[in-house]
Amino acid sequence: MKLQLRGRTLDLSRPRLMGVLNVTPDSFSDGGRYLDVESALARARTLKAQGADLIDLGGESTRPGAAPVSASEEKRRLLPVLEAVLELGLPVSIDTRKPEVAAEALALGAHLLNDVGGLRDGRMVRLAAEHQTPVVIMHSPVNDPQTMMQHARYADVVREVAGFLRHQAEGALAAGVPAVVLDPGFGFGKRLEHNLELLRRLDELAALGHPLLVGLSRKRTIGELTGVEAPEHRVCGSVAAHLTAARRGARILRVHDVAAHAEALAVWNAVEG
């Protein structure tokens, strides 16, 4: 399986690492650390050196309960960093749910659109088709971080997530989007039991036939399972969760701790072939 990223090819015959770079003051794990271009670029260089295959750049926190920011503020945070990071030569994914932000990021040369809104806004679909850019479609019960946990109710979380992702993927491809990546949205309107069920049955989502992205890095679920309160110390639990996801079909792992995951995947790949 290969993913074409606007002139670049990402070989998904083995799991790949997407390094997280948040240029936000309020992200749950690393908010406020990379607010200027220099510190963000230094972090991107570190992610690349540690083994990241691509970088996911975000200018708005979408953790449960996060307050929204305006499109102008998100662009102010994001676009100068994007221009700098693109010079490193790695594919760059833009993590946004705003068409205004996506339009300028794609015009600058971003390689992948990571829409945590799940392509609910048709303008995002049209932009991806116009720029011939693949899209990550993430599931959440509603496109509102402040209220999503109020909607964490499922009769069968895997069936409902799969249905949403299938429907959104079919619509995007019919509209001319060149490729889609599916993200179950761990933690987005989902409680511990929902996240565990999704992880146990991840192969059912992989069977939809599109590359699968999983992001459990440092999340509350890891803390609930391990008892580790500080997100930056949830490295071991994150690696364990992501190796489980890889075994069940995940092809892209969205992680903060690239070096630890790269070491674990080196062993995993040698054993699993």
CATH class: Alpha Beta
Order of helices and strands: EEEHEHEHEHEHEHHEHHEH
List the total number of helices: 10
Overall shape: it is globular
Looking at this protein, list some descriptive labels.
273 residues; alpha/beta; TIM Barrel; eight-stranded parallel beta sheet; 10 strands; 42% helix; globular
Can you walk through the features of this model?
Catalyzes the condensation of para-aminobenzoate (pABA) with 6-hydroxymethyl-7,8-dihydropterin diphosphate (DHPt-PP) to form 7,8-dihydropteroate (H2Pte), the immediate precursor of folate derivatives. It is an enzyme of class 2 (transferase). One of its GO terms (cellular component) is cytosol. Pathway: Cofactor biosynthesis; tetrahydrofolate biosynthesis; 7,8-dihydrofolate from 2-amino-4-hydroxy-6-hydroxymethyl-7,8-dihydropteridine diphosphate and 4-aminobenzoate: step 1/2. The protein is built from ten helices and ten strands. With 273 residues, it is α/β, with parallel strands linked by helices. The protein has one domain (2-272): Alpha-Beta Barrel (TIM Barrel). The strands form two sheets. Strands 8-7-6-5-4-3-10-9 form an eight-stranded parallel β-sheet. Strands 1-2 form a two-stranded antiparallel ribbon. α1 (37-50) packs across α2 (71-86), α2 packs parallel to α3 (99-108) and α3 runs parallel beside α4. The chain is globular and about 40 Å long.
